[in-house]
Amino acid sequence: MVKRPRPFRAAYVGAAALTVFGAVTGHDKLQWVAKPLMMPLLAADVTVNGADLAPADRTVLLGSLAAATVGDVLLIEPDNDRRLVAGATSFAVMQSGYSWLWWRRGARPRPAIAGQRVAAWLGAATLMRFKAPTVALPLTAYGATLGTAATLASDPGLAPSAKNVGGLNIPNADAKSRLGVGALLFTLSDGLIVLRRIFAHSPRSRRVTEGVILGTYAAAQYLLADPRAHR
């Protein structure tokens, strides 16, 4: 089978690279230009290459990316707690959309996998309760949607051809097998947001951490929003 070119995903990689560079170097103008383009570029790829998706699935996937776009813009200023909470709300909508899509594809929570996610969620919630109480409640609520999506993304039933090691599907040729890694990267990115909020104090450490946050986030969305994973 001849692979079709996917220019919108290539452009997404470029926009993501500029966004990370802007964060690490402190060039906020680069972020304001590049970051709002990221999810629309993935949405354009879904529109072009997801024509064979069920109409409801395509609508939810595009809606999830629209919610992520709002969150992306809000989190260009990650040190503003009001924007952080509003951004988390937008991403909760996105995570709920992803969960709905994977449930439709047959994913179900497995106790062993769910237990790992619940433990991580409780750990983050406890840390925020004591170290960042002003944002603990809304971010903990968001974490529940993240944990649900991550649990479903790692269900072996979602990608039967993939090996599952330690509660994670190992990527293979099936795009669905990469959803677990995408969700794991998203979890890592969001976990770093919490750690940055609490422990990163110097301008340099905050910029570098923000670059890692954005890099892992961009990689996650690249895997999660692939329309081939939602067929």
Radius of gyration, CA atoms, in whole angstroms: 17 Å
- DSSP E strands, number: 2
- The CATH class: Mainly Alpha
CATH architecture: Up-down Bundle
Query: N- to C-terminal separation?
Result: 17 Å
The biggest beta sheet, please?
2 strands, antiparallel
Order of helices and strands, N to C? HHHHHHEEHH
Quote the average pLDDT: 96
Strand content: under 5%
Q: Given the helix and strand composition, which structural class is it?
A: mainly alpha
Tally of contiguous helical segments = 8
- Widest sheet: strand order? 1-2
Assign a percent range to the helix content: over 70%
Low confidence ranges: none
Number of domains: 1
Shape: globular
What is the fold named in CATH at topology level?
Rhopdopsin 7-helix transmembrane proteins
Main location: membrane
Protein name: Lysoplasmalogenase
Subcellular location: Membrane
Membrane topology: Multi-pass membrane protein
What is the compact description of this entry?
Belongs to the TMEM86 family. Helices cover 74% and strands 2% of the residues.
